[in-house]
Amino acid sequence: MFNLTLTNDVARKVRQAGLLYLIIIVTGLGAELGLRGPLVDFENAAGTARSILAAPVQFRLAIAADLLMALSDAGLAVLLYLIFRTVAPGLALSAMVFRLIQTVLIAANLMALQAAWLFLASTDGPADHAALALLLLNLHAHGYDLGLVFFGVNSLIMGVLVWHSGLFHRAFGAGLAVAGAVYLIGSGLRFFAPEFHAGFTPIYVVTILAETAFCVRLLLQRNPDLLELDQN
Question: Which of 11, 29, 34, 122 is deepest in the core (most CB within 10 A)?
Answer without folding.
Answer: 11
